[in-house]
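// run 5 | inverse folding | seed 20
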């Protein structure tokens, strides 16, 4: 029996608005034909269950005599509207029916803005204050481990990143923080190692009264997330690594390249000229370029950024990866301009039973690029305990 429906259903970056009878996503509102909307509504209300053709015909057409072509046309309309030509969301099961494969959540359509997330607060890690904030109403706690440098207030001023963060808050209660020495956290005299950063992450979990959480680590944050999962298994229940690496040489591939980056930080930090190294598709976007300049300035001082890069050059966590015994998803773009795809492959091959998903694209930031929504729903599916379509499973030696 179909459950009483909430006002809205959210899936794979889309919202099915049941009061307006519309589909919302990608900055637009789509009004499907009435029967196509009803088919989508019924499928989305029954995710993960095989719906037979006869059941759909009975529910949508209420015994009216129609041909199979009517249902086929509705499914075609739906796939075109939600860009599901590869049939990852609405699956055909020969001789069985249809399966809605996306994770579906319910709630209000009003977006989570920077003003509606919790105020920025500070956790105490020893004598150091770690800035953090929390948002979202999902059923699982998800800690967002920061990359190289971050600023948890400035993050919400870039529309693409804000949208990405809002979507995460639809399927999880998200906890995001700035590492010590960066963003709004205390500046420190000594650059911290991974053990000190683990202490900071644990302090944030304690501050929000969370015993165990899923951890997502993009880029350099992936090294911290993996290290935390290996050394604090009682605090970590699932691990997601995006564009991440175990060894620094997957990021900066030579001493010459490292010295070039250090020279840039020393002489031009805050100019935003490093953008091609992280998001080449956004080069030429004036608003994004200005945000990136501000990102550099607010993320860290030049001296702190240089010290962090020198510390990062020592990262090598390959030996601890086999100790990770929790469900792990590794997502990496195959032409990532910043971290080589081999970095993601090494992580997936070294972590027992990790799942690897390789996606096309050159941008390092997960919220930039044509498949940013796919990255989100892959994470959503994984955290819900479903095998993502197209996942490659790796086993430890």
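// decoded
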């Amino acid at each position: 029996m179909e459950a009483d429906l909430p006002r809205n259903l959210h899936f794979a970056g889309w919202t099915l608005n049941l009061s307006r009878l519309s589909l919302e996503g990608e900055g637009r509102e789509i009004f499907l034909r009435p029967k196509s909307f009803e088919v989508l509504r019924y499928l989305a209300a029954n995710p993960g269950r095989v719906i037979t053709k006869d059941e759909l015909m009975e529910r949508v057409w209420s015994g009216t005599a129609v041909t199979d072509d009517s249902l086929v046309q509705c499914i075609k309309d739906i796939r075109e509207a939600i860009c599901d030509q590869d049939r990852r969301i609405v699956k055909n099961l020969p001789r069985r029916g249809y399966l809605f494969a996306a994770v579906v959540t319910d709630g209000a359509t009003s977006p989570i803005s920077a003003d509606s997330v919790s105020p920025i607060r500070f956790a105490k890690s020893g004598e150091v204050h770690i800035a953090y904030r929390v948002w979202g109403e999902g059923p699982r706690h998800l800690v967002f481990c920061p990359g190289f440098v971050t600023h948890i207030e400035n993050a919400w001023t870039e529309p693409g990143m804000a949208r990405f963060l809002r979507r995460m808050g639809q399927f999880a209660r998200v906890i995001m923080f700035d590492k010590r020495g960066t963003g709004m956290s205390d500046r420190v005299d000594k650059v911290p190692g991974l053990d000190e950063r683990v202490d900071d992450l644990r302090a944030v979990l304690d501050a929000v009264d969370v015993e165990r959480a899923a951890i997502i680590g993009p880029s350099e944050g992936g090294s911290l997330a993996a290290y935390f999962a290996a050394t604090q298994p009682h605090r970590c229940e699932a691990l997601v690594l995006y564009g991440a690496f175990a060894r620094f040489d997957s990021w900066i591939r030579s001493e010459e390249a490292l010295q070039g980056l250090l020279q840039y930080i020393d002489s031009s930090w805050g100019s935003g000229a490093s953008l091609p190294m992280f998001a080449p598709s956004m080069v030429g976007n004036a608003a994004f370029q200005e945000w990136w300049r501000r990102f550099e300035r607010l993320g860290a001082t030049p001296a702190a950024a240089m010290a962090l890069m020198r510390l990062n050059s020592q990262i090598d966590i390959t030996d601890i990866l086999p100790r990770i015994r929790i469900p792990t998803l590794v997502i990496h773009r195959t032409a990532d301009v910043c971290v080589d795809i081999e970095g993601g492959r090494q992580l997936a091959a070294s972590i027992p039973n990790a799942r690897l998903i390789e996606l096309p694209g050159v941008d390092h930031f997960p919220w930039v690029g044509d498949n940013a929504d796919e990255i989100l729903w892959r994470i959503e599916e994984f955290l819900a305990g479903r095998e993502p379509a197209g996942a490659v499973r790796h086993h430890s030696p």
